[in-house]
């Protein structure tokens, strides 16, 4: 869910979550210094509730992926989140993945 033009889903800039949501290097450093469960929960929050206004111009996939590796974070919550979206299995959805039979968007 994305925020409207006058709303924000971004946490305060001094918090671990806020730093990670902004995709700044300082956020990664704070995450690595924080207790692992807290850092992993903040990272999961960022990935499951994408804070970017326009994902086409703000690239954070590698930033978040590297943090998952560095934190040795569990991917079960992320896996459950991805599996829960019905549109991924709907061949008419533009978000569905291509299949070997050539279906998908």
Please describe what this structure looks like.
The protein has 105 residues and is an all-alpha fold. The relative contact order is 0.11. The two termini are 21 Å apart. Helix 2 runs antiparallel to helix 3 and helix 3 packs antiparallel against helix 4. The C terminus is likely disordered.
Summarize the structure.
By secondary structure, this protein is an all-alpha fold.
Would you tell me the overall average pLDDT?
Answer: 79
The succession of helices and strands, N to C, reads: HHHHH
> What profile does the largest beta sheet have?
none
- Please compute the radius of gyration using only Cα atoms: 16 Å
Shape descriptor reads globular
- How many domains comprise the coordinates? 2
Question: What is the helix content?
Answer: 40-55%
- Detail the poorly predicted runs: 99-105
Number of helices in the DSSP assignment = 5
What is the total tally of β strands? 0
Briefly note the structural class of the backbone.
Answer: mainly alpha
Distance between the termini: 21 Å
Q: Report the sheet-strand fraction.
A: under 5%
